[in-house]
Amino acid sequence: MNISRRDFLKGTAAGALGLAASSLLSPVSAFAEGEKKAEELNIHQAMAGLNPQDYDFRDPDSDLAAIFSPWKFGGLSLSHRMVKSAAGSDTQKGSEEEAVEYYANFAKGGVEMVWVEDFLKFHDNFPSARATAIEDSHVKAVVDGVHKAGGYIGYQLSCMGRSFSGFDAATAPMYASAFAEHLTREEVKLVQEDFINGAKKMKDLGFDAVEINAAGNNIGQAFFSRQRNHRDDEYGPQSFENRARFVGEIITGIKEVCGKDFPVQVLINGIEENDIDIGQADLSTTVEENCKICKSLEEFGADSLHVRLGVFRMHVCQFASDLYFTGNGIIGTAANGTRFDFSRHFEGKLLANHDAYGMMLKVAQEIKQAVTIPVGTVTCMNPAHAPKFFNDAIKNGMCDFFIMNRPLTVDTEYVNKLREGRLDEIAPCTRCMHCHFDYDENGKTYEHCRVNAATQRAWHDQMPEGATPRPADGDKKVMVVGGGPAGMEAARIAAQRGYDVTLYEKNGMLGGLLTFANIIKGPHENLDDLKKYLIRQQELKGVKVVTGTEVTKDFIEKEAPDYVVLAVGGKRPALELASHGATTVISLDDIARTKIGEHVTIIGGNAQAVDTAQYLIAQGKHVTMVSPEDKDKLDKGQSSWVKQFTIPMLYANGMRLWPNASVKEIRDGEIVIDGETGCDIVIACETVIDARDMLPNKDMIDGLSIPAIAVGDCNLPFNIAEAIAAGNIAARNI
User: Fold this and answer.
1) In the chain, what are the helix, strand and coil shares in percent, each to the nearest 5?
2) Does 140 score more than 90 pLDDT?
3) pLDDT at residue 41 greater than cutoff 90
4) Helices (H), 20-138
5) Nearest alpha-carbon partner for 479 in 560, 570, 569, 568
6) Closest to 251 in 3D by CA, of 287, 282, 296
7) 592-629: string of b/e by CB count within 10 Å (b at 16+)?
8) Nearest CA-CA partner of 221 in 282, 158, 142
9) 269-284 pLDDT per residue, tens
């Protein structure tokens, strides 16, 4: 059995969860009038004082001179410090147009070094059954497309999930991977030969560089590690040169067949920690060890280093370590409900008080001081988010370049906009993780960006024209009703196409439910940034915005637009329970204006309900969840990766889920639950929060004489990602 990195991650996501849902929080409900400031409700201190965060590090006052300064990667000259990481190989499964556009758009947007994730059959000795044959791929067109757009392109070489004489990947338990001693001496040479020949194949295809993935569960990491290397020959752990020798000889071999000026980068775990049995890290590789190993790699001929987090269970956290920061006020949560103390775990060397932004910078700096070649690092490296913070990181020598993926995927024009100082025009990454091995409710792979609806949809059935919408089809007046994310996205795209667009919002502000969602979910997902971005887009695209006006069917008929997009949001089901004595029953919308008791029962199991439970637990509330659905539906609408951290954290902090259950009776200070137990369960409760699924709300366009479509929660309540996508697609089809 041979698995790729993406197959491995897909398997761990499905295996660890066993759940079938996918995206994120459907916004909750708008405040009646006026905007409550997030700080009135938000939790800016970690629960019990553990891992406190500084959310005030986002100083925009910076000239970005260090970020836009030149550097060299081997023989390549680059003018700025932002590099696209190796990700996106799934686009190769589609059309050539999709693959070329996906990668070339990064170069068009200003990225000068674009890495491609390993997906090709380059291993002759240990082939991957799931890889694509070079002759059957779009790779040559991709390489030519990036070059034509003015960028360099590199290929990541990896070897994960392969079987050797001492290791059978097909029967290995989850998270298990080959140890160095599982390879015979002959197999060591054969794997090295695969890497060296693979690099030559990539150079012949036109790639400008290669990266050796020697991190995570890749075989190169096994040789670096005292945990995975028990050999007694020259590749054993007896010296740092020995530990670096396996990868080092690959570097030397690549230089021999590709030329000494052909750039080779090595990806390593910059620092390791045990996320299975937290605290038992005696075999985790330290930064001090890595400094020695990296010095040896440099001596073997490496041109640069890419350092990331090293954990044993959640491979995804090696490059998306912000998942440890998902909990609003409960920072450091691992996927088993335990918590890291970042002041002590990882040797206390993570920069872990800025909501995961730049968390590997101190580690990168220590390694950089040990070598003379460039050092780059990953995890929320996002200069647009905190310009001075990231510019200072380069200026002060913490690293030489930033490895980025999600921010560039959300906005492929990121670098150009940043260079021109148009920070308010950059679409923000909300770190929801819908983009990475997500699943819909039926267990089908579902990988889309919450903010950039074209990602994984362009050149497919919903967007056959590609990422760029077609120009307007004649002169049309478009009315958009509702100023939430679905409505603002529909207005943005329709106006971009060239239509005359007017957006109506009944409240005095735009944003819809993003304001409330930002309060409940906290600052981590940048939902306030998303709201500001969408509002700014209305200005830039020339949308006429009318607030404080409630639209009716008669109003629409009187205005007589050519097309109507309804985006008024879903409606809450009527409350079926009444307050009694000391127990108050409220709708989810009323959290902001109601005193919440110490013992809280939430009715519903969707992402809104789960986010609310997390928000209240962080305040010290005792939360019970009563869901009318099966346990497998818990947190539906959330991304599969986020669930793996959120749900165990809730259970570990005492939340009790009653699935397939209902609240049978409200009493004075307590409630009665009726469910699968077959008997009544009485629990203490001062506040009942009704967070059941929202209902469609599209009556306004029923029977309308004007062509119209309902989008977002008013059509199909689910989450922010689907709301934005629905608005985008509807506007493309006008």
Assistant:
1) 35, 15, 50
2) yes
3) no
4) 96-108
5) 560
6) 296
7) beeebbebbbbbbbbbbbbbbbbbbbbeebbbbbbbbb
8) 158
9) 999 999 999 999 999 9
